Structure to design on (480 residues):
């Protein structure tokens, strides 16, 4: 074992082993239980109590992974994974990620790797144009939509105070208020907390029957806050809520934002990918008033985590919020280039643009559009089957490729019993290992979510899922 310089013959041997492992994994991925079946602590108790005193061979580590860890993996890349939102990858993304790992680029500044900075700039322009954002938006790659939203709220806070909070703190600045619907992702509330604004200052706005923010209620909340001496700071509109992928009415929200001079952030973490389809461009009507926008290619554009596309109208406000250049990081190129460490919270940055570049070139815009269209078509078919079955019902409008539904055999009148029945249905399905679903609650109803978005999903996988759901539901109902 050479601990001084890398032995390329040794690397070739073990890299080939890893590649063969990956190939076998994908060849057999449909045979694994989609959701891990282990119990809490099971993996932990099988691992050694302490690290080895002497180095071990990679061959053994790969065997140990197969023997000990693989059974504790939930297979997010299985085409039978219909849970949460996807965390997809693809062949071009995996290849690029291996190259990224090999180079170990620390892309904090242009000087530390010019190609990393300039490729990121170009790729974000490609994405901006592909999803139809106005040309004045500039973009950077964050690690997640959670970070992107925090960055947006921090920028709003600083711009509203003339960048004084960074210098002086929040004392004496008043109670800032942030607004989002009751269906807004929990990361928004967390961002309000982390930004020092106080959780109680996150205002949850009611939604309509389709789980979209009610603009009238939003404006009423803003008026009440102004009367009470609060400072409306930021509105977060959601395109594709986590529960049901509902779409907040951006045009009306944008009007309110402009009327009261409030920063407007759009969280399109999952649904933003659908903007490459022109039939979904209606979702961003009202973008002329939007300050920041985020969506995650690591969800529905086949680019493995982490890759969050964050766009900002006023890049100077963003860099004024985060830029802090100690002497040892000053370079002669600083005024001529984008140093993306000034665009986000961490100083250190991975070379995330490479895998996105590979994916966009491998599929091309037409290929990406074709895959997303197929997912939506499969969801339409699944929705129709739910609608036509006498023991199931859809619980929210389908906006794209997520179907919210539940079992309702018609002989249960208690809401609590119906919720318990569907909870048992979900857990029985997932215990089978054949498919994986997750749930939400809509109007207090325990709701199953069918998310058809995995990179390699085909019609046969959705058909199998529907069969598993129906048969499991029939068995549970028969045992009542």
């Amino acid at each position: 074992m050479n601990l001084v310089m890398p032995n390329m013959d040794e690397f070739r041997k073990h890299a080939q082993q890893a590649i063969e492992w990956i190939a076998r994994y994908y060849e057999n991925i449909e045979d694994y239980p989609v959701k891990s079946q282990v119990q809490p602590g099971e993996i932990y108790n099988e691992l050694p109590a302490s690290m080895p005193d002497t180095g071990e061979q990679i061959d053994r580590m790969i065997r140990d992974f197969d023997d000990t860890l693989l059974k504790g993996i939930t297979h997010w890349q299985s085409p039978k994974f219909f849970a949460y939102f996807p965390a997809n990858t693809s062949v071009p993304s995996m290849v690029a990620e291996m190259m990224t790992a090999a180079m170990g680029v620390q892309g904090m500044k242009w000087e530390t790797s010019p190609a990393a900075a300039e490729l990121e700039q170009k790729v974000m322009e490609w994405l901006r144009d592909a999803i139809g954002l106005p040309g004045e938006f500039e973009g950077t790659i964050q690690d997640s939509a959670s970070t992107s939203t925090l960055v947006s709220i921090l920028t709003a806070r600083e711009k509203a105070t003339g960048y004084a909070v960074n210098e002086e703190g929040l004392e004496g600045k008043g109670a800032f208020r942030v607004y989002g619907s009751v269906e807004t992702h929990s990361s928004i509330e967390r961002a309000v907390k982390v930004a020092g604004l106080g959780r109680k200052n996150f205002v949850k706005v009611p939604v309509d029957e389709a789980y979209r923010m009610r603009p009238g209620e939003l404006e009423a909340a803003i008026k009440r806050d102004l009367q009470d001496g609060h400072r409306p700071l930021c509105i977060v509109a959601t395109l594709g809520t986590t529960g049901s992928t509902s779409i907040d009415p951006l045009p009306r929200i944008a009007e309110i934002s402009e009327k009261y001079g409030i920063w407007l952030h759009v969280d399109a973490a999952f649904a933003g990918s659908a903007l490459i389809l022109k039939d979904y461009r209606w979702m961003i009507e009202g973008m002329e008033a939007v300050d920041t926008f985020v969506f995650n290619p690591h969800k529905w554009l086949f680019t493995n985590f982490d890759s969050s596309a964050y766009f900002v109208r006023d890049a100077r406000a963003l860099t004024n919020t985060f830029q802090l250049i100690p002497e040892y990081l000053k370079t002669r190129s600083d005024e001529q280039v984008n140093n993306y460490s000034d665009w986000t919270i961490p100083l250190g940055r991975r070379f995330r643009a490479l895998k996105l570049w590979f994916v966009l070139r491998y599929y091309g815009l037409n290929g990406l559009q074709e895959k997303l269209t197929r997912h939506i078509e499969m969801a339409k078919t699944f929705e129709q089957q739910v609608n036509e079955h006498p023991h199931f019902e859809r619980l929210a409008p389908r906006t794209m490729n997520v179907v919210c539904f539940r079992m309702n055999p018609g002989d249960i009148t208690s809401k609590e019993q119906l919720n318990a029945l569907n909870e048992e249905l979900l857990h029985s399905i997932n215990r089978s290992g054949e498919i994986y679903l997750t749930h939400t609650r809509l109007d207090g109803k325990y709701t199953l979510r069918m998310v058809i978005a995995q990179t390699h999903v085909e019609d046969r996988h959705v058909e199998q899922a529907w069969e598993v759901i129906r048969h499991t539901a029939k068995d549970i109902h028969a045992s009542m």
The chain has a mean pLDDT of 92. DSSP finds 15 helices and eleven strands in the chain.
